[in-house]
Amino acid sequence: MTRYVLRRLTAAVPLLIGISALVFLVIRLAPGSPVGGSQTAGGALDGEQLRRLREQYGLDDPLVVQYGRWLGDLLQGDWGTSFTSGRPVLETIGDRVLPTVQLGGLALLLSIVIALVVGLASGLRPGGVSDTVGSALSVVGLAVPSFWLGMMALYLFAFELQWLPSGGLVDLRSQSTGPDLVVERARHLVLPVGVLTVVITAVLLRYVRGAVLEVAGQDHVRVARASGLAERRVVRDHVLRNALIPVTTVVLVELPAIFVGTVITESIFAIPGVGRLFIESATTRDYPVLLGILMIAAVLVVVCNLLADVLYTRLDPRIALTDTRRTA
Amino acid sequence: MSTATPTPPAAPSAPEAATVATAPATGPTTAGETAAAPAAGVARRPWAGFLRQRRAVAGTAVLLGLVAVCTTAPLWGAPPDAVNLAAADLPPSVQHPFGTDQLGRDMLSRAMSGGRLTLAVGFSAMAAAVLIGVVVGALAGAGARWVDAGLMRLVDVFYAIPGLFLVILVMSLWGATFPTIVLSIALLSWMTVARLTRATYLSVRERDYVKAARLLGYSPLRVAVVHVLPNTLGPVLVAATLGVAAAILLESALSFLGLGFSPPTATWGGMLQDAVGPTVQQGLWWQGLFPGLLIALTVLAVTWVGDGLRAAVDPRSAS
Amino acid sequence: MSRPLLRIEDLRVDFVDGRRRVQAVQGVDLQVGAGEAVAVVGESGSGKSVTALAVLGLLPRARCRVRGRIELNGEDLLALPAREMRRRRGRTVALVPQDPLASLNPVHRVGDQLAAVVTTHAGAGRRAARARVTDLLADVGIPDPAGAARRYPHELSGGQRQRVLIAMALAGDPALIVADEPTTALDVTVQAQVVQLLVDLTRHRGTSLLWISHDLGVVAGVADRVAVMYAGRILEHGPAEDLLLRPAHPYTHGLLQSLPRTDEAGDPLPLTPIPAGPIATDGCAFAPRCAWRAPACDETPVLRLRGAGAVRCVRDEPHAPRTPVPVERAEVVAGV
């Protein structure tokens, strides 16, 4: 099994290189550059200074060279410095990781629980109460843009009812510490986590329901009932256990998408996370940070896919670990 | 949420997983090929299956209605860009059914204008995605091993990049014009179509009537167009329709983040962006409500149509 | 005769799907005595599997309407609340299903699945359960029972999987075993072994057996009595030997003639293909395919006693088969 993992990891390398090359290309080929953009506001920099800046950042070398240099630095742990803040990229990103993880992690956890409960009930009794509720929830989560949901939620809870704060992670004026701080943080996270949960649950619910429906109709479930097993046991050992296989895979594979989904939620709720950092960097053309975030995301995708495959073989004894090329 | 579609080792039986297509041939078979190409279809009247679904019919009706209203709006509505500060921030009324925004512009007509743009972007993006996907998929299926492998690697690369990130990146760097928005959304969605096409190609290629056709001297291109494409039509159509829904959401997200079409062009997402402050801080709820409802309505209608198409194409997938 | 173990009275099962209603079972009467082996034979769609599932209470309530009476040990199973029915399953009446690969959960080890049944019915501790599992597997003739218990279903052969299913049915020591085409998915050579196993086990324990099959050949060695089903009704039933040697109903006759023979070239297709579409409820359902059809067949025939059995046909005389049906080899007799 370790051999399989190693093999997959080595296969992932060209993939990552490909991604990095693609991203690098996209960024570098774009019109406008970091130097000559905001830095020359009002023509404050003359041609000579501009030229020296470009030379300092190596922006005049051929693209391939620039790419090679960047990649080499990356592999040695030097992810460059942010154009806007001057601080190391990894540090810049690192500062903002926690809020994103809190937001995304909490939402994901909640979503999994809800999706499993509602999806199981829906799949076991199609057309029943849970099914209708679940479908309604799916509709809302899939069709309704999350930022709109957030906005309306803010309107309702922050403006009309004034129950919850309207953004950020903490009140600017407060100086709470310890448990008070935790409570305050929590209050600020309620709406964003809620909105994100709705969105994620909608996606997961469809998969859970589908998987449960399919499994519940299989012969071995009927045989289990025929043997006189208690219904709870049948559901747990035969329906849920089997349905978890595709569901786990889906959750893992969708994980990076959740990470990306926080972008919007962070924007509307003014949460200083990685998603917002990405947008800010895109606007200011802070290439090193952009590249850094994208590479992290790509690595996350590769790791999640690998985990999904490995976990799948653990969960389903029929699947042996061969070099499964997913591009079937 | 981004449009990344998962591809686990064994596709879950979930609606969104693009199932490998052995779809009935819903397209016409040319007379010359009938000797070699039996009508592989089971569904002789696919539209019957589609029309039987209430949601699909409702969705189509809504979409057609929206398109009609949006395109005819210039004839009967107020000009969307007419600034009138005296009438700013008015709640919904008979004169302004959706109210007015901060600059006194009638929100209904802005919404209709935005609708035109959003729908245009959605459909164009998916058309582009289908075009790219079919070409790549056919090349992969028809070509040599290394061509196939290379192209599939490309697909993997695109799958690995989180969609929203890529689009944000492209939009912020290359500016927001109709072509760039359409293209960047298309770049996110072509992979599914490519895989579908490739899978169909590979399966069709081995069938006897195709081999017979090749022996008779028909070129690969002809085989592709006559035999493979009709078989892909169904699933690709389904994927494309669902992709339109995703494209609409994506475009509104972009506009919301300020990376979409620039003002004064009206888009639903842009209207929402303008509305954040007023709605949340000042309670001008109508400015945020209507554009969002429209987005949701459109996406829902498109999704229902897509689900209906899927049920018509592959009756087994109906739950 | 003492009270039969299982008595099915006027069983009717309808499948409802929206507006369409399919009458899968239209008034079936059947009895199985203690220690007796009864076979129900018929083609696909005859309603035989539905009957079996009805006895076990496994028909989905949402889609099926079940009426009539199914008496097991004197109590009407159809009148029982769900919880009570569940208690009977596995303990009083058990199922041996077909398609062993689909009937076992691929994700759990064979021993664990068997142990679950054991603990449900015997309430034993883990170690005791494991021992019982090994015993059961040995009873059904699986080599290396302890090793087999640790395997997953896909690691066993088809015949072994079927044996496991038989073991599962025996785990609760039921009074009646319902075998729903247990050999259909198996190779012919394995079929014979499994049939023999089931027969031996049930005879040895005095368990009654209700064997559902479409294959008269398989059933010939198993059953004490045979019932032939068609389109939801029983067309004929009687002691096995009588029925097989001197079938009264044209359909039975046709089924027997359809058995592949190595000693003569008979009519290769004695039975016409099953017609498509719903079966008419008036008149004899088999009439469209019957070679001896008469105008009287437009009336729904009733079950008439004949010897130790009964037949549902208007013709008065039993039909002399063109050739006697072989249970062993037989001679060709100049036919009618």
Q: Which key terms come to mind for this protein?
A:
heterotrimer, A: mainly alpha, 74% helix, disordered C terminus, B: 319 residues, mainly alpha, disordered N terminus
Task: Outline the structure in words.
The complex is a heterotrimer of chains A (328), B (319) and C (336). With 328 residues, chain A is an all-alpha fold. In chain A, 74% of the residues lie in helices and 0% in strands. Chain A contains eleven helices and no strands. Chain A is globular. With 319 residues, chain B is mainly alpha-helical. Chain B has a single domain, classed as MetI-like fold (Orthogonal Bundle), CATH 1.10.3720. Chain B has ten helices and no strands. In chain B, helix 2 packs across helix 3, helix 3 packs antiparallel against helix 8 and helix 8 packs parallel to helix 9. The longest helix of chain B has 37 residues. Chain B is elongated, with a radius of gyration of 22 Å. The two termini of chain B are 25 Å apart. Chain C has two domains: 209 residues, Rossmann fold (3-Layer(aba) Sandwich), CATH 3.40.50.300; 92 residues, no CATH class. Chain C has an eight-stranded mixed sheet with strand order 6-7-8-3-9-10-12-11, sandwiched between helices. Chain C has a four-stranded antiparallel sheet with strand order 2-1-4-5, with helices on one face. In chain C, helix 4 packs across helix 5, helix 5 crosses helix 7 and helix 7 packs parallel to helix 8. The radius of gyration of chain C is 21 Å and the shape is globular. At the A-B interface, helix 1, helix 5, helix 6, helix 7 and helix 9 of A face helix 4, helix 5, helix 8, helix 9 and helix 10 of B.
Q: What are the low-pLDDT stretches of chain C, counting only 5+ consecutive residues below 50?
A: 320-336
Order of H and E elements of chain C: EEEHEEHEHHHHHEHEHEEHHEE
Helix/strand structural class of chain A? mainly alpha
**Outline of chain A:** globular
* Average residue pLDDT of chain C: 83
The amount of helix of chain A comes to: over 70%
CATH architecture of the largest domain in chain C: 3-Layer(aba) Sandwich
Rg value of chain A: 24 Å
